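Technical annex B. To support the medicinal chemistry partners, we prepared a structural model of the target in complex with protoporphyrin IX containing FE, based solely on the information shown next.
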Amino acid sequence: MKLFPAATTLAALAVALIPAHAQTSVAEAQVNALEGLFGQHEGLRRAHARGLCASGYFIGNTVGRALSSASVFSGDKIPVIARFSVGGGHPKISDKSRTVRGLALQFSLPKGEQWLTANISAPVYFISKPAQFAPFMAARLPDPATGKPDLVNLKLFSELNPETLRQGAYLAKAPVPASYAAANYWSANAFEFISAKGQRQFVRWQFVPEGGPLGLTDEQLKSLPNEFLADELRARVAKAPVVFDYKVQLAEAGDAVTDPTLAWPDARVVVPAGKLYIDKVEAAEGGACDKLTFNPLVLPKGIKPSADPVLLARPAPYGVSLGRRLGEAAK
Ligand code: HEM
Protein backbone atom coordinates (compact mmCIF):
# COMPACT_ATOMS: atom_id res chain seq x y z
CA MET A 1 0.00 0.00 0.00
CA LYS A 2 1.24 3.50 -0.84
CA LEU A 3 1.67 5.93 2.06
CA PHE A 4 1.32 9.00 -0.13
CA PRO A 5 -0.99 9.72 -3.04
CA ALA A 6 0.59 9.96 -6.49
CA ALA A 7 1.91 13.33 -7.60
CA THR A 8 -0.92 13.74 -10.10
CA THR A 9 -3.50 13.49 -7.33
CA LEU A 10 -1.60 15.82 -5.01
CA ALA A 11 -1.33 18.35 -7.80
CA ALA A 12 -4.99 17.96 -8.54
CA LEU A 13 -5.99 18.25 -4.88
CA ALA A 14 -3.84 21.36 -4.65
CA VAL A 15 -5.90 22.99 -7.42
CA ALA A 16 -8.83 22.89 -5.04
CA LEU A 17 -6.89 24.86 -2.44
CA ILE A 18 -5.73 27.72 -4.67
CA PRO A 19 -8.19 30.65 -4.71
CA ALA A 20 -9.93 30.92 -8.09
CA HIS A 21 -8.45 34.36 -8.87
CA ALA A 22 -4.91 32.99 -8.47
CA GLN A 23 -5.38 30.23 -11.02
CA THR A 24 -4.69 30.86 -14.67
CA SER A 25 -8.14 29.48 -15.32
CA VAL A 26 -10.26 26.97 -13.46
CA ALA A 27 -12.11 26.31 -16.72
CA GLU A 28 -8.87 25.51 -18.60
CA ALA A 29 -7.88 23.15 -15.77
CA GLN A 30 -11.29 21.43 -15.99
CA VAL A 31 -11.03 20.92 -19.74
CA ASN A 32 -7.38 19.83 -19.42
CA ALA A 33 -8.49 17.27 -16.83
CA LEU A 34 -11.14 15.93 -19.25
CA GLU A 35 -8.48 15.63 -21.96
CA GLY A 36 -6.12 13.98 -19.47
CA LEU A 37 -8.65 11.27 -18.67
CA PHE A 38 -10.34 10.76 -22.06
CA GLY A 39 -7.73 11.98 -24.54
CA GLN A 40 -7.79 14.92 -26.92
CA HIS A 41 -10.15 14.14 -29.77
CA GLU A 42 -9.80 16.76 -32.47
CA GLY A 43 -12.88 18.75 -33.32
CA LEU A 44 -15.01 17.04 -30.67
CA ARG A 45 -16.56 18.08 -27.37
CA ARG A 46 -14.29 17.42 -24.38
CA ALA A 47 -17.28 16.04 -22.47
CA HIS A 48 -20.20 14.15 -24.00
CA ALA A 49 -18.04 13.70 -27.10
CA ARG A 50 -20.29 10.98 -28.49
CA GLY A 51 -23.71 12.12 -29.58
CA LEU A 52 -26.04 13.17 -32.33
CA CYS A 53 -28.05 16.15 -33.33
CA ALA A 54 -31.81 16.21 -33.77
CA SER A 55 -34.58 18.77 -33.95
CA GLY A 56 -38.23 19.28 -33.17
CA TYR A 57 -40.42 21.61 -31.17
CA PHE A 58 -41.74 22.37 -27.68
CA ILE A 59 -45.25 23.29 -26.58
CA GLY A 60 -45.74 24.76 -23.12
CA ASN A 61 -48.97 24.54 -21.12
CA THR A 62 -50.98 26.61 -18.65
CA VAL A 63 -49.11 25.23 -15.62
CA GLY A 64 -45.83 26.44 -17.14
CA ARG A 65 -47.43 29.82 -17.91
CA ALA A 66 -48.61 30.20 -14.31
CA LEU A 67 -45.15 29.40 -12.91
CA SER A 68 -43.00 31.43 -15.29
CA SER A 69 -43.48 34.35 -17.65
CA ALA A 70 -40.96 32.75 -20.07
CA SER A 71 -42.23 32.82 -23.66
CA VAL A 72 -41.29 29.13 -24.01
CA PHE A 73 -44.55 28.35 -22.15
CA SER A 74 -46.76 30.47 -24.47
CA GLY A 75 -48.38 27.37 -25.96
CA ASP A 76 -47.01 28.21 -29.40
CA LYS A 77 -44.78 25.75 -31.26
CA ILE A 78 -41.20 26.67 -30.24
CA PRO A 79 -38.48 25.35 -32.61
CA VAL A 80 -35.86 23.23 -30.83
CA ILE A 81 -32.43 21.85 -31.73
CA ALA A 82 -31.52 18.85 -29.56
CA ARG A 83 -28.32 16.93 -28.95
CA PHE A 84 -28.42 13.48 -27.39
CA SER A 85 -25.12 12.21 -26.00
CA VAL A 86 -23.28 9.65 -23.92
CA GLY A 87 -21.33 11.02 -20.94
CA GLY A 88 -17.53 11.02 -20.97
CA GLY A 89 -15.02 12.58 -23.30
CA HIS A 90 -14.29 9.59 -25.54
CA PRO A 91 -16.15 9.51 -28.88
CA LYS A 92 -16.04 5.70 -29.00
CA ILE A 93 -17.44 5.10 -25.51
CA SER A 94 -19.88 2.17 -25.60
CA ASP A 95 -23.60 2.97 -25.73
CA LYS A 96 -23.90 0.26 -23.05
CA SER A 97 -21.70 2.12 -20.56
CA ARG A 98 -23.03 3.10 -17.14
CA THR A 99 -22.36 6.80 -17.64
CA VAL A 100 -25.06 9.41 -17.96
CA ARG A 101 -26.88 10.08 -21.23
CA GLY A 102 -27.28 13.76 -22.11
CA LEU A 103 -30.12 15.79 -23.62
CA ALA A 104 -29.10 19.32 -24.60
CA LEU A 105 -31.62 21.74 -26.09
CA GLN A 106 -31.67 25.09 -27.84
CA PHE A 107 -35.09 26.76 -27.83
CA SER A 108 -35.46 29.56 -30.40
CA LEU A 109 -37.93 31.94 -28.81
CA PRO A 110 -39.72 34.96 -30.29
CA LYS A 111 -37.83 38.24 -30.65
CA GLY A 112 -34.46 36.50 -30.93
CA GLU A 113 -34.54 35.20 -27.35
CA GLN A 114 -32.90 31.82 -26.64
CA TRP A 115 -32.94 29.18 -23.95
CA LEU A 116 -30.09 26.68 -23.76
CA THR A 117 -30.08 23.73 -21.40
CA ALA A 118 -28.02 20.54 -21.03
CA ASN A 119 -29.54 17.76 -18.90
CA ILE A 120 -28.41 14.33 -17.74
CA SER A 121 -29.98 10.94 -17.10
CA ALA A 122 -29.36 11.16 -13.35
CA PRO A 123 -31.12 13.37 -10.82
CA VAL A 124 -27.78 14.47 -9.34
CA TYR A 125 -24.37 15.66 -10.58
CA PHE A 126 -21.01 14.30 -9.41
CA ILE A 127 -19.57 17.44 -7.78
CA SER A 128 -20.97 20.10 -5.47
CA LYS A 129 -18.12 22.59 -6.00
CA PRO A 130 -16.43 23.52 -9.30
CA ALA A 131 -12.98 23.04 -7.71
CA GLN A 132 -13.74 19.30 -7.34
CA PHE A 133 -14.11 18.77 -11.11
CA ALA A 134 -10.43 18.48 -12.16
CA PRO A 135 -9.38 16.44 -9.07
CA PHE A 136 -12.37 14.11 -9.64
CA MET A 137 -11.03 13.35 -13.15
CA ALA A 138 -7.41 13.13 -11.93
CA ALA A 139 -8.35 10.62 -9.24
CA ARG A 140 -9.65 8.33 -12.01
CA LEU A 141 -6.51 8.47 -14.17
CA PRO A 142 -5.16 5.00 -14.85
CA ASP A 143 -1.95 4.09 -13.09
CA PRO A 144 0.57 3.45 -15.93
CA ALA A 145 1.70 0.26 -14.15
CA THR A 146 -1.74 -1.39 -13.99
CA GLY A 147 -3.87 0.49 -16.54
CA LYS A 148 -6.44 0.95 -13.74
CA PRO A 149 -7.11 3.91 -11.42
CA ASP A 150 -4.92 3.95 -8.34
CA LEU A 151 -7.40 2.76 -5.71
CA VAL A 152 -5.50 4.41 -2.85
CA ASN A 153 -5.74 7.81 -4.54
CA LEU A 154 -9.35 7.27 -5.50
CA LYS A 155 -10.27 6.27 -1.94
CA LEU A 156 -8.49 9.29 -0.53
CA PHE A 157 -10.27 11.69 -2.89
CA SER A 158 -13.63 10.03 -2.24
CA GLU A 159 -13.18 10.15 1.54
CA LEU A 160 -12.37 13.84 1.35
CA ASN A 161 -15.29 14.48 -1.05
CA PRO A 162 -17.99 11.93 -0.18
CA GLU A 163 -20.74 13.75 -2.12
CA THR A 164 -18.86 12.95 -5.36
CA LEU A 165 -19.97 9.30 -4.99
CA ARG A 166 -23.72 10.01 -5.09
CA GLN A 167 -24.14 10.11 -8.87
CA GLY A 168 -22.07 6.93 -9.31
CA ALA A 169 -24.20 5.17 -6.68
CA TYR A 170 -27.35 6.16 -8.60
CA LEU A 171 -25.94 4.99 -11.96
CA ALA A 172 -24.70 1.70 -10.52
CA LYS A 173 -28.30 0.76 -9.65
CA ALA A 174 -30.11 2.35 -12.61
CA PRO A 175 -30.68 0.24 -15.73
CA VAL A 176 -28.61 1.23 -18.79
CA PRO A 177 -31.00 3.16 -21.11
CA ALA A 178 -32.25 1.11 -24.07
CA SER A 179 -32.80 4.26 -26.14
CA TYR A 180 -31.99 7.97 -26.09
CA ALA A 181 -35.78 8.31 -26.26
CA ALA A 182 -36.36 6.12 -23.19
CA ALA A 183 -34.18 7.88 -20.61
CA ASN A 184 -35.27 10.43 -18.04
CA TYR A 185 -33.19 13.61 -18.22
CA TRP A 186 -32.81 15.91 -15.20
CA SER A 187 -31.47 19.47 -14.86
CA ALA A 188 -29.72 18.49 -11.59
CA ASN A 189 -28.97 22.21 -11.08
CA ALA A 190 -31.75 24.35 -9.59
CA PHE A 191 -33.26 27.37 -11.32
CA GLU A 192 -35.78 30.00 -10.29
CA PHE A 193 -39.06 30.52 -12.16
CA ILE A 194 -40.48 34.04 -12.04
CA SER A 195 -44.19 34.35 -12.80
CA ALA A 196 -45.86 37.25 -14.61
CA LYS A 197 -47.00 38.44 -11.17
CA GLY A 198 -43.41 38.38 -9.90
CA GLN A 199 -43.80 35.24 -7.75
CA ARG A 200 -40.57 33.25 -7.41
CA GLN A 201 -40.24 29.46 -7.21
CA PHE A 202 -37.06 27.36 -7.11
CA VAL A 203 -37.37 24.39 -9.49
CA ARG A 204 -35.52 21.48 -11.02
CA TRP A 205 -36.88 20.12 -14.28
CA GLN A 206 -36.97 16.74 -16.00
CA PHE A 207 -37.68 15.52 -19.52
CA VAL A 208 -39.62 12.30 -19.00
CA PRO A 209 -40.11 9.96 -21.98
CA GLU A 210 -43.82 9.68 -22.77
CA GLY A 211 -43.61 5.88 -22.96
CA GLY A 212 -41.66 5.74 -19.69
CA PRO A 213 -37.96 4.94 -19.20
CA LEU A 214 -36.71 1.62 -20.58
CA GLY A 215 -33.52 -0.17 -19.55
CA LEU A 216 -31.48 -2.86 -21.27
CA THR A 217 -31.90 -6.42 -20.00
CA ASP A 218 -28.78 -8.46 -19.12
CA GLU A 219 -29.36 -10.41 -22.35
CA GLN A 220 -29.46 -7.20 -24.42
CA LEU A 221 -26.33 -5.93 -22.66
CA LYS A 222 -24.55 -9.06 -23.91
CA SER A 223 -25.98 -9.20 -27.41
CA LEU A 224 -26.18 -5.54 -28.53
CA PRO A 225 -23.21 -3.95 -30.31
CA ASN A 226 -21.39 -1.04 -28.65
CA GLU A 227 -23.04 1.41 -31.03
CA PHE A 228 -26.81 1.29 -31.31
CA LEU A 229 -28.29 4.45 -29.80
CA ALA A 230 -28.04 6.67 -32.90
CA ASP A 231 -29.60 4.16 -35.32
CA GLU A 232 -32.27 3.22 -32.77
CA LEU A 233 -33.31 6.88 -32.45
CA ARG A 234 -33.33 7.39 -36.23
CA ALA A 235 -35.54 4.31 -36.69
CA ARG A 236 -37.99 5.48 -33.97
CA VAL A 237 -38.29 9.02 -35.26
CA ALA A 238 -38.78 7.76 -38.83
CA LYS A 239 -42.02 6.14 -37.56
CA ALA A 240 -43.32 8.86 -35.21
CA PRO A 241 -42.03 11.86 -33.24
CA VAL A 242 -40.41 11.01 -29.93
CA VAL A 243 -42.19 12.81 -27.10
CA PHE A 244 -40.94 13.89 -23.66
CA ASP A 245 -43.08 15.40 -20.90
CA TYR A 246 -41.35 18.44 -19.48
CA LYS A 247 -41.94 18.28 -15.73
CA VAL A 248 -41.01 20.74 -13.03
CA GLN A 249 -40.19 19.76 -9.45
CA LEU A 250 -41.10 22.50 -6.96
CA ALA A 251 -38.67 23.13 -4.12
CA GLU A 252 -39.88 23.72 -0.59
CA ALA A 253 -38.19 25.77 2.10
CA GLY A 254 -34.92 24.16 3.16
CA ASP A 255 -34.35 22.16 -0.06
CA ALA A 256 -30.78 22.32 -1.35
CA VAL A 257 -30.82 24.76 -4.24
CA THR A 258 -27.05 25.20 -4.34
CA ASP A 259 -25.89 21.56 -4.22
CA PRO A 260 -26.53 19.47 -7.36
CA THR A 261 -25.33 16.28 -5.64
CA LEU A 262 -28.42 16.33 -3.38
CA ALA A 263 -31.78 15.21 -4.79
CA TRP A 264 -34.90 16.79 -3.35
CA PRO A 265 -37.30 14.53 -1.45
CA ASP A 266 -39.56 12.34 -3.64
CA ALA A 267 -42.54 13.90 -1.86
CA ARG A 268 -41.96 17.24 -3.63
CA VAL A 269 -44.70 18.23 -6.06
CA VAL A 270 -43.82 17.60 -9.74
CA VAL A 271 -46.01 19.30 -12.36
CA PRO A 272 -46.12 18.90 -16.16
CA ALA A 273 -45.32 22.22 -17.86
CA GLY A 274 -45.08 21.23 -21.53
CA LYS A 275 -44.11 18.63 -24.11
CA LEU A 276 -40.98 18.23 -26.23
CA TYR A 277 -41.34 16.60 -29.67
CA ILE A 278 -38.30 15.30 -31.59
CA ASP A 279 -39.26 14.74 -35.23
CA LYS A 280 -35.94 14.81 -37.11
CA VAL A 281 -32.56 13.20 -36.46
CA GLU A 282 -29.38 13.99 -38.40
CA ALA A 283 -28.20 11.19 -40.69
CA ALA A 284 -24.63 11.48 -39.36
CA GLU A 285 -22.87 13.02 -36.36
CA GLY A 286 -22.47 16.77 -36.43
CA GLY A 287 -25.01 18.98 -38.14
CA ALA A 288 -26.43 22.11 -36.53
CA CYS A 289 -25.07 21.08 -33.11
CA ASP A 290 -21.41 21.27 -34.14
CA LYS A 291 -21.11 25.03 -33.72
CA LEU A 292 -23.29 25.17 -30.59
CA THR A 293 -22.37 24.95 -26.97
CA PHE A 294 -25.30 24.56 -24.60
CA ASN A 295 -24.36 27.23 -22.04
CA PRO A 296 -26.99 26.71 -19.33
CA LEU A 297 -26.92 30.36 -18.26
CA VAL A 298 -28.50 31.43 -21.57
CA LEU A 299 -31.98 31.70 -20.08
CA PRO A 300 -35.15 33.44 -21.22
CA LYS A 301 -36.79 36.22 -19.22
CA GLY A 302 -38.86 34.40 -16.57
CA ILE A 303 -36.17 31.79 -15.70
CA LYS A 304 -33.18 32.74 -13.55
CA PRO A 305 -30.16 30.73 -12.40
CA SER A 306 -29.94 29.65 -8.75
CA ALA A 307 -26.78 30.44 -6.81
CA ASP A 308 -25.56 26.85 -7.35
CA PRO A 309 -21.78 27.35 -7.84
CA VAL A 310 -21.60 24.38 -10.24
CA LEU A 311 -24.27 25.90 -12.47
CA LEU A 312 -22.57 29.30 -12.41
CA ALA A 313 -19.22 27.69 -13.31
CA ARG A 314 -20.48 25.90 -16.43
CA PRO A 315 -20.27 28.58 -19.17
CA ALA A 316 -16.48 29.02 -18.91
CA PRO A 317 -15.39 25.39 -19.54
CA TYR A 318 -18.08 25.04 -22.24
CA GLY A 319 -16.52 28.07 -23.95
CA VAL A 320 -13.02 26.59 -23.61
CA SER A 321 -14.14 23.28 -25.10
CA LEU A 322 -16.02 25.06 -27.91
CA GLY A 323 -12.96 27.19 -28.68
CA ARG A 324 -10.65 24.18 -28.82
CA ARG A 325 -12.91 22.03 -30.98
CA LEU A 326 -13.86 24.79 -33.42
CA GLY A 327 -10.19 25.79 -33.70
CA GLU A 328 -9.26 22.20 -34.55
CA ALA A 329 -12.16 21.82 -37.01
CA ALA A 330 -11.06 24.98 -38.84
CA LYS A 331 -7.51 23.64 -39.43
C1 HEM B 1 -18.24 22.51 -13.27
C2 HEM B 1 -19.05 21.61 -13.78
C3 HEM B 1 -19.04 21.19 -15.23
C4 HEM B 1 -18.02 21.19 -16.14
C5 HEM B 1 -16.56 21.61 -15.93
C6 HEM B 1 -18.56 20.70 -17.38
C7 HEM B 1 -17.85 20.56 -18.57
C8 HEM B 1 -18.41 20.31 -19.81
C9 HEM B 1 -17.76 20.49 -21.08
C10 HEM B 1 -16.32 20.96 -21.28
C11 HEM B 1 -18.65 20.15 -22.04
C12 HEM B 1 -18.46 20.20 -23.57
C13 HEM B 1 -18.98 21.55 -24.07
C14 HEM B 1 -18.86 21.76 -25.56
O1 HEM B 1 -17.82 21.46 -26.14
O2 HEM B 1 -19.82 22.30 -26.15
C15 HEM B 1 -19.87 19.71 -21.38
C16 HEM B 1 -20.99 19.24 -22.02
C17 HEM B 1 -22.10 18.78 -21.35
N1 HEM B 1 -22.37 18.88 -20.02
FE1 HEM B 1 -21.18 19.69 -18.63
N2 HEM B 1 -19.89 20.40 -17.21
C18 HEM B 1 -20.22 20.68 -15.91
C19 HEM B 1 -21.47 20.53 -15.32
C20 HEM B 1 -22.54 19.92 -15.90
C21 HEM B 1 -23.81 19.65 -15.26
C22 HEM B 1 -24.18 20.07 -13.84
C23 HEM B 1 -24.59 18.99 -16.19
C24 HEM B 1 -25.99 18.49 -16.09
C25 HEM B 1 -26.76 18.60 -15.10
C26 HEM B 1 -23.81 18.84 -17.40
C27 HEM B 1 -24.25 18.24 -18.56
C28 HEM B 1 -23.61 18.31 -19.78
C29 HEM B 1 -24.16 17.81 -21.02
C30 HEM B 1 -25.50 17.08 -21.22
C31 HEM B 1 -23.22 18.11 -22.01
C32 HEM B 1 -23.33 17.81 -23.51
C33 HEM B 1 -23.97 19.00 -24.20
C34 HEM B 1 -23.97 18.82 -25.70
O3 HEM B 1 -24.55 17.84 -26.16
O4 HEM B 1 -23.41 19.69 -26.37
N3 HEM B 1 -22.58 19.41 -17.18
N4 HEM B 1 -19.70 19.85 -20.02
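Notes passed to the chemistry partners:
The first strand starts at residue 50 and ends at 60.
The domain at 7-330 is CATH 2.40.180.10 (Catalase HpII,  Chain A, domain 1).
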